[in-house]
Every structure is written in structure tokens, then in C-alpha cells.
Design a protein that fits this description.
The complex is a heterodimer of chains A (498) and B (249). Chain A is of the alpha/beta class. Chain A has one domain. Helices cover 25% and strands 33% of the residues of chain A. In chain A, strand 3 and strand 4 form a beta hairpin. In chain A, helix 3 packs antiparallel against helix 9 and helix 10 crosses helix 11. The radius of gyration of chain A is 22 Å and the shape is globular. With 249 residues, chain B is α/β, with parallel strands linked by helices. Chain B has a single domain, classed as 3-Layer(aba) Sandwich (Rossmann fold), CATH 3.40.50.300. In chain B, 39% of the residues lie in helices and 29% in strands. Chain B has 8 helices and 12 strands. In chain B, strand 11 and strand 12 form a beta hairpin. The two termini of chain B are 29 Å apart. The chains are: A alpha/beta (498), B alpha/beta (249). Chains A and B meet through helix 10 and helix 11 of A and helix 2, strand 7 and helix 3 of B. Chain A: Belongs to the iron-sulfur cluster assembly SufBD family. Chain A: This is Fe-S cluster assembly protein SufB.
């Protein structure tokens, strides 16, 4: 990028307020024609050289989608979306799948460097082809799959992971190299007809991450996918599939950002997790899509379906999410607790500031004996933000001795925002125990004054109090990301008090 | 030197301070006593800049700096510390984290280097020992689940760490048993020296047996109505406010 442009960019970043990831990368892109029809679905499938069973599956999803309606029950409002007025495929032009980071377009590498993905990650991105694979500070490295608009542009540490039999690659690559695994599990947790946005995703998904951890293997490093929407008028439809075979353990983290634009962009992802006997998956999200400006203009519509199947005995899935971005968030990471004594956890922090709206929560479906679930949700509303927790705990007659504990806390900053809690509890088993606790509070004037009297600025005081409020959730994040998340919480609330 | 001149303040439009004039020279400890509703807490909040305590006139200078022009955190950095009558709970915020954040915020403003976690622990542990505070109080949420005595000791710990030029102790003795009272008083006395002064606000003479003031002022109906040496506190104890005030009036 020429120096002048870079300077302009820096100035823009500095003057356009709190969202620091709103820049755009100037790179040659390849688009499918605008709009959505069967030809586009075929185009995407052909572009990815997919087998016919997958094309058929996409087409079935597209047929189903045409007959479906957008869900109207979430407590969010937005103008009608014109699904014909968007690009469904946008990819940076580059040679076929780069084999190493050296082959990746430097403009893309620069973009990720600029995004301030935790510095440690940057060190690794830059160091992959270098001498050692362990960073100098001795901490465990993080393997990253970087998804730019519709395609995965780089995956780090594949070699090292392969030694353990772990597969970590883009889902497009998995379709080519491990079709039997993809075919066995794709759509088995979130069927292609599950809901409007899941059906849309099934028809047009372009990329995403694929993880397979073989029997008895404990993944030696954090796996991470970093999603970036760059191109204008594009939807992002990624599909992630993670399978932990018997006795396997993995911790996975996703992060996301997008440029600052006046138009709304749609992000409709599907994530499927499968945990077999004694397997454990920890899935953490730090969601920081562009939230729109302070008047509610622009921002990402984040309509996402995430679900885990705890199929095996004693399997465990833990969702942790920190949702600070997006104009609208509609998302319910859920667990189907099928295996006996399987465990589901959901830890969530959702912030809505300015005109952001969030309708988020979880579903815990208890099917197996002795299944347990824990839900801890922290909603923070500021400005004119609207924050809804919506959760379902369902206990089937066969889920003897199932247990659930739910805690929902809301924090209000200012008097124009709203917090709503909508818990659904369906218990059909006499020996099950279900607990629900909920609180709503304000940041009290005396708390702020106490902090300021001790020398903290108003904004640091809000940050400290909010981080304290979220502590139970933040401590579930991998350590290096917890620090990032704390900073993000504070940035998201800048200017919300006083 | 803290110099308060003809300070007037109101709360919800109601005048509470009606012209307070007071000087606390460096190195001195002054007590402010007075009946309920005299304006003692209002004075401490007006000096520290709490929202809702509207200054309507007068001036407050700390070593020549105009405090009334400053935000609460700027006053803290300038060296003003308020030990709260009811210390506030901050759920989920670790006490150690809070104390270090506060200490570093103030050090930054003063142009001093920040302390890292290890240096801070060393500092805090030494002070806590002096205050007979168990070390696990560093790990707990700020004032969350603390007993009344623990909360007050936590205030004194913060004062000891932040090293203010002037400390206002707002009824720090309320709710303390005699052992805790001694510990708190020892904490304040340990700070006494040429660069530290204090304004001890209290109902009762009891605390002043342990923190012997240089001067005692009586605040009534928003004004300092009489001042004297430590013996004034004893007279108040013996004769009551009505007795002393009747004579002053």
C-alpha cells in the first residue's frame, strides 16, 4: 500500500471512533455474479471441485430454503434483507491453495498483521516457515486457519499436527482430502433443513475450518480460525466441522472482524461439533464484527447456528463466547446431550452498545442419563442497545438424574438500553434437577465514584466493573485471549457513561 | 496544606454547607466533629468531587492547586484520599487487581514508573502485615463478603499504598470493635509525618484517644462553629454538642 494511503488509513482509524478493525484491504478479488439461484450454488460447488453428493446436498438445501421464512421470534428488528442483492462468492485472486505462508499474497499477510490478532499469533504466523516451531517465550503455539471472505487463505502448523494424526484444514480441503469424514458428519448435527439461515448456509457455504482429532489424542496446541469479511456487498457463509473421536481433547478459538461500512452485511455461519465417548471440545469465540456506527448505520448481521452433539458417554462440550460486535446477533450455541453422563457448558458475555441488538443464548437438550449442563450468561446493555438472553433447557423422560444450573445476569449502563431474559424450561423427568437464577443490576454511581476516588478514570472504572461482572465467563477463555477479550469489552463500552 | 475558604454546597437544591473555612497545614491531623446532619459527609464528598454535591461558592486549594476544578480522579492524583464511611463492593474485581490498578493510575499521573505484579505483591504484603490483614483478602473481590472491620482496614491499606498528601477519614470508626479501632488508628499514626495530613471526621471522641488530633473543629448546620485543641473533644464528650454549641452560640 502506498505510504499516502497508509497515512490516510491511520488517520481514518484514529478519527472514526472505537472500531479499530474497520479498514479495507485493497486486493484483486474474484466474484460470482450477484444474486442467489441454483446456478450460483452450482458455481460455488464447481469452483471448489466438489463431489456430486455434496452438490446434491447443497441443492437440496437451496430447495428447502426457498420454501422457508426468516425467523420472526427473535427480539430484534431490521429492514427486510434482499437476498438477491449480495455476492455469495468472493475470493482473493491467488494461485491455487498456497502450500506455505511464503506463497500467500503479502497483502493478505499484512491485513492479518494489522488486525492485531494477539501478538503471539502474529509471531507464529510470521515464524511458521522459520527455524523453530515454538515461540521464544516458551508458551504453546496456536495453529491458525485464516479465512478471508469466502476462502481459507492459510493454515499454520499443519505439519506438526499431522504427526499426531490431527487434521486441521479448511473445509474445502477436507472435502478433497478426507471426503469420507466430511460425508459421515456434515449436516448430522445441524441438518440442511434446520432453519432458514442454516439452510442458506448449507446451499452456499464457501469455506470454514475442519478439525478431526483421532482417538485418544489430546491436541497439543490451541486451534484457531480468524474470519475476516473484506469485500463489499458480500455475505460470509462459513461452515465449521469439528470431530473429537473417542477420548480426544481439543480447544478451539474463533475471532472475527470486518471493515467499517454504511451497509449491512450478512454473516450466516454454521458450526457443528461432534464429541464421541470421553471426548472433550472447548469452543471459544471472540466475536468482534463491525457493530455499525453510533447512529446504528451499517454493521454485520450475525445470524449463526452453532450446535454440538455430545454423542459419546462422558463426552463434554464447552461453549464460551464473548460477543462485542455485530449490529445484530442471533445465535444460540447448543448442546445435544445424548451420551450418558455427557456434559454441556455455555459461558457467554454479550455487549450491546449504541444501536446494537443481541438475541442470544443456548439450548441444552438432555437425552441421556446423568447428563449435566451449566449456563452462565452475562448481558451488558449500554446506549440504546437491546440485549436478550433466550435459552432452552429440555430434559427428556429418559434423562434420569439430569442436572442443569442456569445463571443469567444483566448489567445496564444508562437508561435508554434494555435487557430481557427469556428462559424456557421443559422438564419431563422426575429425577432431574433444574435451577435458574437471574439478576439485573446497574453500574452504581457509588461504584464509579469509589474507583475514581482511587485515581481511575471514568472509562477505566467502567472497564474494571464490567470485567468484574464478566469474570466467571472470562476465566473460561484460554489465557492469552482472555486478556484480549478484557480490552475489547472496555473498547466496546467507550463513551457509554457520562 | 489544605485550605478551604467559605465553601458552600448543596444537595438536591438544598444548601448543606453554608460557608466552611478551614486550614489543615502539612503534617497535622485535624478532627471534625458534629451532630447528625451537620454536613460532615457532605464536606468529605464535596472535597472529593462526588456527583450530586453541587459547589455553589468558595474555594479549596491543596498545596496551591485548585481542587474544585478537577475530576475526582485528578483530585486523587493530586494527593487527596477519602476513606469511605461505607466502602463499596465491586463483585468479581479482585482486590489485588483493584489496588494495583489504582496505584498505577496515580503513579502514571504523577509521572512515576508503574509497579508490576511482583513488586506490588511485595508492597501490599508488607502493609497488610502491619494492618493484621490476612493475605487472602488480596484474592477476594473488592470488599465483597468483608466484615465491617475488614472493609475499614482495606480502606487504610489503600491509603497506605497510595500515599496521599491529605486523607479524609469519614467516620472510619463506625462499626469497629476496639481491637479493629486500634489497628486502624495505628495505620493512620504510622503515616503521620511532615508530608501527610488528615481530616478525621467522627461522631465520637473514642477514635481521638487513638489518633490524637492537633486541632478539633465542630461543624454544625454547615459551618465550623468552634475550634480548639484535643481537649475540645473531651469537653464535647462530657457536655454534649448542645452544651458546647449553646456556649459557642
Amino acid at each position: 500500500m502506498p505510504a499516502v494511503e497508509e497515512t490516510l488509513d491511520t488517520v481514518r482509524d484514529a478519527t472514526q471512533g472505537a472500531y479499530k478493525w474497520g479498514f479495507e484491504t485493497d486486493i484483486e478479488m474474484e466474484f460470482a455474479p450477484k444474486g442467489l439461484n441454483e446456478d450460483i450454488v452450482r458455481f460455488i460447488s464447481a469452483k471448489k471441485n466438489e463431489p456430486s453428493w455434496l452438490l446434491d446436498w447443497r441443492l437440496r438445501a437451496f430447495e428447502a430454503w426457498k420454501g422457508m421464512e426468516e425467523p420472526r421470534w427473535p427480539a430484534v428488528t431490521y429492514p427486510p434483507i434482499d437476498y438477491q442483492d449480495a455476492y455469495y462468492y468472493a475470493a482473493p485472486k491467488q494461485k491455487a491453495a498456497p502450500k506455505s505462508l511464503d506463497e500467500v499474497d503479502p497483502e493478505l499477510l499484512k491485513t492479518y498483521a494489522k488486525l492485531g490478532i494477539p501478538l503471539k499469533e502474529q509471531a507464529i504466523l510470521a515464524g511458521v516457515e522459520g527455524a523453530g516451531e515454538s515461540p521464544a517465550d516458551g508458551r504453546l503455539p496456536v495453529a491458525i486457519d485464516a479465512v478471508f471472505d469466502s476462502v481459507s487463505v492459510a493454515t499454520t502448523y499443519k505439519g506438526r499436527l499431522e504427526k499426531e494424526g490431527i487434521i486441521f484444514c479448511s473445509i474445502s480441503e477436507a472435502v478433497q482430502n478426507h471426503p469420507e469424514l466430511v460425508r459421515k458428519y456434515l449436516g448430522t448435527v445441524v441438518p440442511h433443513t434446520d432453519n432458514f439461515f442454516a439452510a442458506l448456509n448449507s446451499a452456499v457455504f464457501t469455506d470454514g475450518s475442519f478439525v478431526y482429532i483421532p482417538k485418544g489424542v489430546r491436541c497439543p496446541m490451541e486451534l484457531s480460525t480468524y474470519f475476516r469479511i473484506n469485500a463489499k456487498s458480500t455475505g460470509q457463509f462459513e461452515r465449521t466441522l469439528i470431530i473429537a473421536d473417542e477420548g480426544a481433547t481439543v480447544s478451539y478459538l474463533e475471532g472475527c472482524t470486518a471493515p467499517q461500512r454504511d451497509e449491512n452485511q450478512l454473516h450466516a455461519a454454521v458450526v457443528e461439533l461432534v464429541a464421541l465417548d470421553d471426548a472433550s471440545i472447548k469452543y471459544s469465540t471472540v466475536q468482534n464484527w463491525y457493530p455499525g456506527d453510533e447512529n446504528g448505520k451499517g454493521g454485520i448481521y450475525n445470524f449463526v447456528t452453532k450446535r454440538a452433539a455430545c454423542r459419546g458417554k462422558r463426552s463434554k462440550v464447552s461453549w464460551t463466547q464473548v460477543e462485542t460486535g455485530s449490529a445484530i446477533t442471533w445465535k444460540y450455541p447448543s448442546c445435544i446431550l445424548q451420551g450418558e453422563e455427557s456434559v454441556g457448558e455455555f459461558y457467554s458475555v454479550a455487549i450491546t452498545n449504541n444501536h446494537q441488538q443481541a438475541d442470544t443464548g443456548t439450548k441444552m437438550i438432555h437425552l441421556g442419563k446423568g447428563t449435566r449442563s451449566t449456563i452462565v450468561s452475562k448481558g451488558i446493555s449500554a446506549g440504546r442497545g437491546q440485549n436478550t438472553y433466550r435459552g432452552l433447557v429440555r430434559i427428556s423422560p429418559k434423562a434420569k438424574d439430569a442436572r442443569n444450573f442456569t445463571q443469567c445476569d444483566s448489567l445496564l449502563i444508562g437508561d435508554l438500553c434494555g435487557a430481557h431474559t427469556v428462559p424456557y424450561i421443559e422438564n419431563r423427568c422426575l429425577t432431574a434437577k433444574v435451577e435458574h437464577e437471574a439478576t439485573t443490576s446497574r453500574i452504581a454511581e457509588d461504584q464509579l465514584f469509589y474507583c475514581r476516588q482511587r485515581g481511575l478514570s471514568q472509562e477505566d472504572a467502567v472497564g474494571l466493573i464490567v470485567n468484574g461482572f464478566c469474570r466467571e465467563v472470562l476465566k473460561e477463555l484460554p489465557m492469552e485471549f482472555a486478556v484480549e477479550a478484557q480490552k475489547l469489552l472496555q473498547i466496546s463500552l467507550e463513551g457509554s457513561v457520562g | 496544606m489544605l485550605r478551604i475558604e467559605n465553601l458552600t454546597a448543596e444537595v438536591d437544591g438544598k444548601p448543606i454547607l453554608k460557608g466552611v473555612t478551614l486550614e489543615v497545614p502539612d503534617g497535622e491531623v485535624h478532627a471534625i466533629m458534629g451532630p447528625n446532619g451537620a454536613g460532615k459527609s457532605t464536606l468529605s464528598y464535596a472535597l472529593s468531587g462526588r456527583e450530586g454535591y453541587e459547589i455553589t461558592g468558595g474555594s479549596v486549594l491543596l498545596n496551591g492547586q485548585d481542587l474544585l476544578d478537577m475530576e475526582p480522579e485528578e483530585r486523587a492524583a493530586a494527593g487527596l484520599f477519602l476513606a469511605f464511611q461505607y466502602p463499596v463492593e465491586l463483585p468479581g474485581v479482585g482486590n489485588a487487581n483493584f489496588l494495583r490498578t489504582a496505584l498505577n493510575a496515580i503513579r502514571r499521573t504523577r509521572g512515576e514508573p508503574e509497579v508490576d505484579a511482583m513488586q506490588f505483591l511485595k508492597l501490599a504484603r508488607a502493609r497488610m502485615k502491619e494492618l493484621s490483614m490476612p493475605e487472602d483478602m488480596l484474592k477476594r473481590g473488592v470488599n465483597v463478603g468483608f466484615s465491617g472491620g475488614e472493609k475499614k482496614r482495606n480502606e487504610i491499606l489503600q491509603m497506605a499504598l497510595l500515599q496521599p498528601k491529605i486523607a479524609i477519614l469519614d467516620e472510619t470508626d463506625s462499626g469497629l470493635d476496639i481491637d479493629a479501632l486500634k489497628i486502624v488508628a495505628d495505620g493512620v499514626n504510622a503515616m503521620r509525618g511532615p508530608n501527610f495530613s488528615a481530616l478525621v471526621i467522627t461522631h465520637y471522641q473514642r477514635l481521638l484517644n487513638h489518633i490524637v488530633p492537633d486541632r478539633v473543629h465542630v461543624l454544625a448546620d454547615g459551618r465550623i462553629v468552634t475550634s480548639g485543641g484535643p481537649e475540645l473533644a473531651h469537653r464535647l464528650e462530657a457536655e454534649g454538642y448542645a452544651g458546647v454549641l449553646g456556649e459557642a452560640a
